[in-house]
Write a structure and sequence with these properties.
The structure is a single chain. With about 550 residues, the chain is of the alpha/beta class. Helix content is about 40%, strand content about 25%. Strand 5, helix 6 and strand 6 form a beta-alpha-beta unit.
Length: about 550
Amino acid sequence: MTAFGRMLVSHEPAWNLDEKMIDAASITRERLLDALARDAIEPAFQCLVDLRDHDLKGFEVLSRWTEADLGEVPPTVFIPAAERHGLIDMLLVRVLSKACRAAAAWDGSFFLAFNLSPQQLQNAGLFSLIRAAAEAGRFPLERLQMEITESALVGDIGVAAALVGELKRAGIRIALDDFGIGFSNLERLHAFAFDKIKIDASFVQNMEGDRDSRKIVASIIGLGQSLGVDVVAEGVETRAQADILRGLGCGLGQGWLFGYPVPAPGAAAALQLGFGKPAAAEALSEASPFQRLHQLETLYRHAPVALCFVDGAERCVSANNRFLEILACAGSQFIGRHLADMACCKARVRGLQAAVHDVGQGRSPAPVEIEGQGETCYLAFVQPVHDEVGERIGTSIIMIDVTEQRRAERAIRESEEHFRCASELSPDIAWAARPDGTVNYMGPTFGAARNMSVEDRIEAWYGTMHPEDSVRVRQEWLAWLPSGQPFETTFRIKWADGSWHWVNSRARPHHGADGAIDRWYGLIVDITGRKALEHRIAVLERQLHGYRRHA
């Protein structure tokens, strides 16, 4: 079976008829002529859909032949027979004129695509036949598209190039079918100035499970985008395949997902019904791999952060200048090498190497802190990079400068330490409460452990209150809140050495812009010495009173 014959099957389900019962040799010239005269060979329309918005953009027109005694005759049988009997041009004209006549009555600006065999491309008069058939069907030439296979580009292409030139000057677009499995070279691809490239279905159908197929598809899409031509993916059978193609930037899809080849009434119905819209998140990339590569390189050069990509073998594939500056390593010593082999910056990449290894094992590592030159400090985020189907292809490393943040943190810690030291020398403890009286801040307390959180300090403070005082003080405090007036009370707390100290707690309300109390601020002062002095004075006063009475 020729490539042209395979193409006309268009990836339909298997024919019910056993092809062994009929072969091309059994189809005589007379039988084919009779079928053409009776219009027994009909056009069938398969949709080509825009992967961006699922709009129906056109149809590939295929030939279908059904006989009462033979049933459905596969195109892989009668197309080679038509070529052998010299009837392939007649077959094209009959199918093209019938398809154009039917499609001329449908609304829309869709195109019709027809297949040309390598043999037909050697017919210098083919353009006149195509033009006459389209005009008879009242269908615009500029909405026609002719598809040729790569095998047509082998050998003497002089006549074929002249024919393609005639077709293009008339507004007919030319597509290269089954790209990737034939013998064409880029020079001839450029010489024919194709308007469209069609990716062979074998690559599309293997994309989900075969990384090499995805790479080939991505390369063909990138080639088409770089040349400024449309790209069509044949054999799209699943939504997952459509999603991958959309992400890679493929514009059009064709295959079972969007329907089998159908007679004219079915095609007209498809135009009316459409295929719905893709999900909003399913965006199509208009940028070619060439454009994306240069965009990425620009980002790498000018990004204010350090960037690096490590492949699945833990080799450093790319890194920007900022990354190399931080590691104090030359690009020649870094790019293409394994992280384990980085003698120039071994100490700095040790943490990165462990994180990259964790990513390879499916774990999510914590950010890695990297000490730079001098007092500089950086935080590295190490994350997996996945391809279109979620397969990990490498690891991304992003480093940001946190030097100022670390300095600020040190300054805060030093300030807290200074405050703590001052607080330990001071008998006063600051506290604050919400409008409802709930204490939500407590300053460093007498004898409290270092680095204790505010919540822990509040809990510890309540735990040091004398049991006889805690209930009383809480009742006094809650009962006083509605007054909105300054509050004051005294109670005992247990000191770090186990002794009990008297403290005085005072609080004043703070009013917000609306005049309502939005916070209470308080101060606790150790009054043990004052209490002792008051007690001593009271004792002395009693003694003095006793002396006076006896005198």
